[in-house]
Amino acid sequence: MILNILNLSLVLGLIAVLISASDPGTSDETTATKPSERARRKSPKVQGLNTAVIETYLNALENFDIQSSDSFHDSCQTLTSSIKAVADCVQPKRSAQLTAPLFTFINMRRSIFPDIQYRVKHRDRPGSWRGRIDVMAQRKDGILFAFRLWDLEEAVKVLKKFEVKKAQDGWTYFKSFKWPVTHWVLATIDFKHRKGRVIRVNASYLLDTYDTSKAVNVVIE
């Protein structure tokens, strides 16, 4: 994947729109400004976001290896480091300012991640919802990645609602995803600020289990 200046501008524009759409804002702002204007105002202040930062993040996901405990731990470390690099560039103050770029970048590599969804809500009934996963992306080998900011316990509760076991074929499916899931990785991300800048990213990962005591915890400063 090669990003030129025009493509990067389009990417930043999409990120701004996603951030604007996920922010209810105030009633005054909603009535006084157009969505495009709100998107412009809420556009992330990017410092140093370039091809290398995006490629590193995408490669960390594309090459995420679960074949052994060691490779899984190494992959968690690499992915968290790449997310910290993204956070350093966008300096998020709110959750959408980080999740929108994470989703948008994956969407640029659809040949590897054919099914990608943003801010997926679990609904108990029409018109209601009980929790959300911020980013869900299925790799072409069937591995499903689910990202949520903050709170591993809550992320587990929500993801459980999406899992559907199909007894007739033996595969596991997740709601709103067409293809069977071979494995799944749940990750929660927490970023810490100091003097207006992200100084640390904490991440917790689960592989094919809802047992939070088995989480792999990674801290990148």
TrEMBL record:
Residues 1-21 form the signal peptide. Residues 24-34 have a biased composition (Polar residues). Residues 24-46 are annotated as: Disordered. Keywords: Signal. This is Uncharacterized protein. It comes from Bemisia tabaci. The lineage of its organism: Eukaryota, Metazoa, Ecdysozoa, Arthropoda, Hexapoda.
